[in-house]
Amino acid sequence: MSRTLSPHAALIVVDVQPDFMPGGTLACHQGEAIVPGVDRLLRSRVFSHVVATQDWHPRGHISFASSHPGRAPFEQIALHGQPQTLWPDHCVQGTPGAELHPGIDWTALDAVVRKGSDPAVDSYSGFRENHGPQGARPSTGLAGWLRERGVDEVFVCGLARDICVLWTAQDAVELGVRASLLWDLSRPVTPTSDDATRATLQARGIALIESANLAI
Ligand SMILES: [Zn+2]
Fold first, then answer.
1. What sequence ranges are listed for the domain Isochorismatase-like (predicted)?
2. Does the active-site annotation cover 28?
3. Residues 34-55 pLDDT 10s
4. Which domain holds residue 136?
């Protein structure tokens, strides 16, 4: 079953950057496999609104294990009262690994939301940073950008399925926007997380669809 897209639907392409691909510093499982499909979707011009997020950290970012002596990547610490996974250094501002992936034609892109620029706060979702020192999650401005364009539905794809894609979709529904996750155009950091991701999507009312079901 294919579906025709409303002009009020937007595509959010999350963190399709070389550092999240095999060979990058924080590779998703088979992350490169989504590149041709994302490229095809952008070239199809089926979405009236297209936004990409770009993880964009300063050197020495607080989410990097290297910023915490004695800690290793993928360990968890408490940060601003919340659990924080420590990551390998990744998507450092201005480095090739932080670019929007060169294998995709980005000319259909309307906006890029850079996230994770605050040295002291991590940022998974395209809508809101993670919890900051004051306990709140600072907005990236994306919800307002979509609202002013009349968008009431988003389709989310990209990397990583179990983290930034999932948090972006969850925030969308929490902020009152319908959300679907394009399963075939996403990949996780941890493949064993897929069952938990599916359960979370179902619990939050987020549709799980394949890009082949879009009318392209
Ligand atoms: Zn990051």
1. 9-211
2. no
3. 999 999 999 999 999 999 999 9
4. 9-59+88-213
